[in-house]
Amino acid sequence: MKKSLIVAKREYIKVVRKPSFWLSTLFLPIFIVVVSFISGYSSMQLEEKLKDEAANANKVLIIDSTNYIKPEVYSEKIVRATDLELGISEVINGTADALIFYPADIVSTKSVQIYSQDKGILLNESYNKLATDLLKQSILADLGDPNKISVYNSELEFQVKTYKEGKETNFSLSDLLVPGISLVIYFTLTTFAVNYLLLSVSEEKENRVMEIVLSSISSRDLILGKIIGLIGVIFTQVLLLTVLSLLGLAATSTLLGGQGSAFANIGATLGTLNITLGQLIGQIVLGVVFTFAGFFILACTMVGVGAASPTYKEAQSMSSIFVILSIFPIYFITIILSDPSGDLARIFSFIPFTASFVLLFRNALGALTLPEIILGVVTLLLYCIVFVIIAFKLFEYGALEYSKRISFKEFFSTFYKKS
Amino acid sequence: MSKSVISVKNFSKSFGNRKVIDDLNFEVFEGEIFAFLGANGSGKTTTIRTLLNIYQADKGELLINGKVYSSEMAAYLGYLPEERGLYLTSRVLETLVYFGQLKGLTKVEATDNAKKYLAKVDLEDKEKSELKKLSSGQQQKIQLGITVMNNPKLLILDEPTKGLDPVNRELLLSILMDLNNSGSTIIFSTHQMEEVEKIADRLLMIKDGRAALYGNLSEVKEKYSDNSIHISFEGKLPEENELFSAKINKNVATLFIKNGKTQKEVIKYLADNIRINRLEENVPSLNDIFIKVMNNK
Fold first, then answer.
1. What's the fold here for domain A54-153?
2. Taking a contact as any Cβ pair under 8 Å apart, which residues of chain A between 2 and 41 contact chain B?
3. Helices B107-120/B92-102 angle, 10° precision
4. Is the pLDDT reported for residue B68 higher than 90?
């Protein structure tokens, strides 16, 4: 174990010292911040511009064949008109900024015609809101009840209660916290860590340093050390990503003048965790088991692939098959989401490379029964044992085969032959 | 009798249908330098890897100090494989320290030993350099440093001078001699017979996976000697008599001693009958012996 820790430390420092590690780790939150800021800022600017465009209009003609528009709506700037052709020609020659035509068959067509000068694809929609507001306010005015109009215009808050098997279910966003974090860690592990592991094994083989290493440390301790080191790397990466993402959200929120309220919402959500300590511990244990079993299976696969391939390039092309397999359920995510206890979800819960992701996802949705949890854990542990045996066999057999790839025939012969 | 450090008994090993080693037996004793010889593909590397438990034997027993090798014995061992490389993007000192720690040294000991070694091979100014920035000769020195930095009691070197220039070869041999003088046992494989003659005490030559020659260097040479002597002389020398047959060229002759007769008898005869200016025993070189053994069907 002491030697494993020496290897772990080396692997950790080796990766963390690389500029590419910091680039990939910092790039994501910076990218999120920049994109959020640009997107938030652009939509704010567009909204303002659209408002300004309609508000700054000098003359907007209204032709109302529906008779829904109330006379109080008309003003110096919003002028009633009757002749469509004339109105259009006014828009064309610039004496009117826009013409809004409510046709008589609006009930069936749900369509309003707007004529304005071409001001670009986005600003051409400046009068859509005005047309909608004029119509809605006119229709609401018929209600004659300010309370009803106020309720209609307000943003409603929804308090939802759901029931399952005769009992009230108590689902809230906070239930997703632990499974959600587990999914993030799982994805980071599968996308970053396994690649580091593959690179590490391939590098030792490609650089012909493996034999010296194996004379000083057992293959078991060497692989264990690599896995521990790379888990450390991933935790550093997840921690940095979390801190930087939160800082990014806070910065975006500040820059956009309080409109990016995600940071405040996270705080509020964390402050009102609707979960007992027992449930929290249960979720953490399951999250850890599912996440690390999935990672371990993939890590063993990478060790085997790295050992069996003569170069990193060859190993990488083969490893991508397994990485894709491990995130394959994403393609079925809507089906799993809509029916987390369905056949497809159940099948993928017990296939080696997909099991962890689907079990984590179903756990997040509260769709796992106790027997399924037990079966899932046992199956994953069995897979871990099988994959570790295969990985060690491949490593022992392939690590010193510097110039050729191990064939399936050669590999399987190792199970009935001593070496 | 010296203690046996390496003991190989009835060792056999095949890869697929190809038998690489067939019932090999040998011992290496404490404090000696043992040469392990054979043509390419004769099974030297396989034997060494099996001895280090990297490969598994099909049959037989390969022991170091009476035990099957495990990585717990790494502190005792220095191993330089034939296929050797380095972590090219790592730095010199940290690489040496890493391997030192894997061999059981503390970080302080490993750092101390590494610095001493770097000073010895004139690389002390390179300790923070990336290995890929070192010349090939400098990288080879680092590989050797990894092997010897724990002052191993047993050194196993698979073609240690392969790819070395003459200067580095001499440096390596002198380091090996120093280690041997301080009590280390050394087993090495090589194709350089002059190195064997220079430093080895005993040797094993394998052919087709079997031992073809095994023993003390002088014994092996004696065995392959054609029992002749070379002289320069004054006087009259017969081309043939009961003691020898001679090939004479003016004042120089090679005398082939006849079966049952000894060198001592011949020299006595010569001393009694001619004046000897120079006398040399005709001893075959190890290179000649190697070629002879390998060509012997």
1. D-Maltodextrin-Binding Protein; domain 2 (3.40.190)
2. 3, 6-7, 10, 14
3. 130
4. yes
